[in-house]
Amino acid sequence: MKLTGIRACVFDAYGTLFDFASAAAGCADVLGDRAGPLTALWRDKQLQYAWLRSLQGRYADFWQVTGDALDFSLDALGLVQPGLRDRLMGLYATLRPFPEVAAMLSTLKKRGFATAILSNGSPDMLRSAVEGAGVGPWLDHVLSVAEVGVYKPHPSVYQLAVDRLGVAPDAIAFQSSNGWDAYGASAFGMRVVWCNRYGQRPERLPGAPDRVIASLAELPDLLEAPAA
Hints:
By secondary structure, the protein is an alpha/beta fold. The protein is built from nine helices and six strands; from the N terminus they run βααααααβαβαβαββ. A six-stranded parallel β-sheet has the order 3-2-1-4-5-6, with helices on both faces.
């Protein structure tokens, strides 16, 4: 059964639209079989630092958090090659989109949905990623937590999308590959499609996704087009 009453589609960025693993993959000539472990640890520390800074009330933008997480990960894995950090950070600024993203966003726009990104990323990071992926023409808004000074899943982040789009929470379909984010948006009151790219187990958190998919290519067929 399709989700009805949806007027806007809002997307997480990292891991949902943009492949965070593509940064380390771009350094495979140096990292070899350590690209996977670096990607996993870097991502884990990036999220941990974002959440811990939120709890401490010590917000720093996601570029700094990402760099701090990379420094920890390179040190933990003993990766000390000159220039590697700068190369990885440069690649993170222009992560590859997942292959279905452009066609999916184009389809949603043609069907009359408003579209937006709602991300932990800083405005500069998101601008670079969107421009590099060439998906700007199909996005009405690119929203950063920098506007509220706290990271997802704080409710004020999801409220930012409601305020900027002028759409009630239950008329928004929120898509994320992160279980904690999907559940957080659901607990806030959004309709949620969890793009479970990584085969995560269901969370034991407030909220629950309305639908679970493996690829965003499935999304347009799940949504009833808004009334003209």
